[in-house]
Task: structure prediction
Amino acid sequence: MKRPAPKKKAAKQKAAPVKKKAAARKATSAAPAIDVDPLPPIVTPTGRANAGQAVAAFASPESAAVETPLEAPVEAVGKKQIASGASPRPSAPSRRGKAPAVVGRRLRKLDSLLKATGQAQYTDDIALPRMLHCKILRSPHAHARIKRIDFTRCLQHPGVHAVLEGSELPAKYGVIPWTQDENALAVDKVRFIGDEVAAVAAVDELTAEEAIELIDVEYEVLPALVEPEAALAEEALKIHEQNKRGNITKHVDLAFGDVQAALGASAAVAEQDFFYAGSTHAPIEPHCAIGHYDAEGNLTVWSSTQIAHYVHRELAKVLQLDPARIRVIQPFIGGAFGGKSDPFSLEFVVAKLSMKTGRPVKCLWTREEVFWAHRGRHPMKMKFKVGLSKEGRIEAVDSKILIDGGAYSSFGLVTAYYSGQLLTGPYQFGTYHFDSTRVFTNKPPCGPKRGHGSVQPRFAFEVALDMAAEKLGLDPIEVRRKNFIGEQTKTVNGQTITSNGFLQCLEAVERASGWREKKGKLGFGRGLGVAGSMYISGTAYPIYPNEMPQSGIQVKLDRSGKVTIYSGGSDIGQGTNSLPAFLISEEIGCDPRDCTVVVSDTDLTPVDLGAYSSRGTFMIGLACVEAGQRLWVQLAQAVAEKWKVSPAAIEGRLGTITGPGGLSMTFREAVQLAEAKFGTLGATGSYRTQKLGADYRGGTIGASPAYSFTAHVAEVNVDVETGVWKVENIWAAHDCGRAINPTLVQGQIEGSVYMGFAEAAMEEMTYLPSGLHRGPSLLDYRIPTTLDTPEISSHIVESVDPTGPFGAKEAGEGPLHAAIPAISNAIYDAVGVRLTELPFHPSKLLALLKQKQTPVATHVDPPAISVPSTYERR
Amino acid sequence: MLTLPPFQYHRPTSVAEAVALLGEHGGKAKLIAGGTDLVPNMKHRLHTPEHVIGLRDVAELHRVGSRDGALTIGAMVTLADLARDERVSAIFPSLTKAASQIAGPQLREMGTVGGNLALDTRCVYYNQTYFWRKALGYCLKKDGTVCHVVKGGQKCVAAASNDTAPVLIALGATVRLVSPRGAREVPLDQFYVADGVKNTVLEPDELLTEVRVLLPQGRLVNGYQKLRIRASIDYPSLTVAVAAWLEKDGSAQWIRMVLSALGSRPHPVKRIEHLFGKPIDAAAIEELGQAAFKQCHPLTNINVDPGWRRQMIPVFVRRAWAQALAIRS
Result:
């Protein structure tokens, strides 16, 4: 196999290191450079939120006048000239070659002050007249048949308005059209402790809570299949009766080249078992939905979802309503991380209960219910073999993975593929084989969590790569550099890589961490570890096959100069409420503060498929560019006509339109000229599906129009007496193509690193043998606090992707992956033991240290202790 | 959101009034100080009192002072105020340390000393929602008959998880309990009993009004170590409180060491009297660690590996003594 030599492109790709305190505890120190906003900070958004519709807006320029002058220079974002993307677009007077006015600036999000001041309306903030409250009865059994549901006592309870059971909503749904196996409420069978059984609408929450205890359900309890091995072995007892092969959701076995032969020929082979414990998203806002079926027969559902469009489709299917009579609105959302990217029981239940009662119905889940809903990271048991040639080339990668899916499919079909398909960069693999099996178990269903499907094998591979490299005496950074896959190339499994800034990422973290100076010289107990990764910028194809755009934008220009942008994008914190204002204003020369972005309302906004697979910036961005360029054609033409110059000579920038010889007018005047000439002004833009992927079954899963790349170095300190380890510093460099807003990109990097660290340190979904979650609360399911969080340095690498909007790729998920193996590798460097099971609990590390009989340096060795296998009461 | 069960709320303004309300409603009433323990427990339907008696307005319970050669801390003094109090930290750094490590900053502004001492015992099978406990089949401590920690166990082993209790026992504190029948002073060590269902001698009509700790007139050394997985908002997985009275020659007149977050009451380590009268040197500390290790057996009542917690006992004993001796020597 041909191996492209690593290419140098230092001129184009510049790492912009910025160190930022992860925690607020050092907030008293001088403000670091990162907080300086070169454009006047966008202040006092005037967003309104009518009827739950999320509307974000910039403030009037007057209110910003006290801040930094508008014409402050844009931060250097790399030397490549601005190019706004490669999507099909009308020929426009080119704005290329101009210094960007907005792209690359550290602008505040349009809605950040609304959130910071508590003015943002989340779903639970909405209270409608005559609104009822809903509670859902859940199964106390992990696996049981429902014999009978009796509402007699419940209906007698004062304040109860309606009850609902599964047979009233028999249609199955699910986010993936081929694996729809869910019911809004259980029909015949329950499949995990917490599965939804029945629902009540009552005058208030307390009454509804009392009422569900008065529903009498008779169960026939079935044996619970809690462990994936048990579920895999069991063929007769099926969790889903209609499933074809036992309890297997999906089995994928794909080989690229002769892996066995390549392993045999390898100079060094690492073989290791790994376990990745499941984790959950833990967004601060629990799921919440309100259904309102009005007197005209129109249904409105407000929901804290990140996939309003799919919810719209599934509501129509399950409720058997005309989709044209259904409106889905996503209000502000308090975090999601993939945990709100399925249609959920409560959305159907509130809609149906509203249809039954004629009143609005709200359901707000408790924290515990969010744990039952789950859809978090799949536990994976992984066996990895990595073979290196004597020069350190990756000759063979072979994996066998058992994926614990929980009770329903969710995105599981994709998970099974992603566990193999997304591993084939940033390194060139000589040969590759993966064999992944996802099984159903009687536990809360797993699904997509930030870095869906690929975080687990990435951890295993990056640790195994270090193990193999060590056998050859290779430096961990060198072995990664040596295997760089290159740009404009194909992966072993046939995916197309466009831009690739991985080498710059490696360089950035190598330099920032002082790797060369420190590696191997830190002494026992301290160490450095590195890891790399790649991720998709959206999936090539929509979840349900269709020829329509995956993302749409509409823009309306008002003669006041106001620009209203309609976007179906789902902002889950990453900034897609603001992105359209940044990109449209860049394209048409308006002041970004004069934009209002109307978002996520299926009656008002064009379809966007939702916030998943890191598709937002790439796909919404390209739609924005297209719409903006279409409008610019009209604006430039109208102005050119007035000035009697060529449209190509017109420029627009931050609200001022200029022409040759000092000609100038306001953006508002330009709009009025264009409106007089063309009539009412508006434009649309779309991101259309491109043909991507390889030509084999499954070859399009994992295909993406562009891939992001990441490298991390972690520095750890291990307390060898207790096994407690601490990440002193973690340096993360991420190639996001181009940072449309560097502050938001760094926010995504830091959030990702934090989340990866959290999974390495403490997050873990654990169950009793009965299938009951051990502690579905944020007290028992520990996520790190600011005191636990390491210092995080984030570095942006800009490879300027030829296909992305202004060269941008994803930044929301990729930077999570490498944190976990970097920490494991650093712990090995510190104390010589390999942590191969997540989370890296101090007890595991201490046990490994004891096994190894490691000298404990300057510490006093604790007395030898024999730990009894059972613990008696004192 | 989890709902609170309905109750009647009372706001007495004096101890006498509070005690009278307790006398009237007795077992059907619960006292609320900061509410950081009671409110979640009520939301979990672990307690469904008909009456809740709020102590916020009882001014006499909010004071830190000294009387008859003892430091007195009112039951309603918040943990944050206690942690900030320089009179306390100058003499009892272990108490300051314990108070400052409870829960998180916001919770310490609400939680109180009295509330912490009267904290309900905790267990992974108990501090859960009603639905969760129903799915489990309930437990010995609440609504059920089975202990899930100790198979076949007939006595609840829910863990004492209050940070201030082991410290105050090590410092020899007493608590004042007031009821309609009068007042009594109980050594804190005797305030706790080994029963996870209810681990104090507090009667249903009794109010804990203050804690008294004798002010030392010589060389008191004291230290506190807490093992927890998360650096904030985490109950202890193991706590070690140590105190000793050092003579001028460095020998210890007495030594006290209390471990907690194990079983249903804090455990004062026994059979260490032979170390009295000698200096607390490395060999003595090693012996203290071994004594603690032998006497303490962590259980699965806390969701952290009991084997590891037990291994940590000698380590944390050593660190607690290192801390105690460093501060005053």
Residues 219-328 of chain B form a domain with the Enolase-like; domain 1 fold (CATH 3.30.390.50). Chain B touches chain A through 51 residues (CB under 8 Å). The two ends of chain B are 52 Å apart (CA to CA). Residues 306-328 of chain B form the longest helix (23 residues).
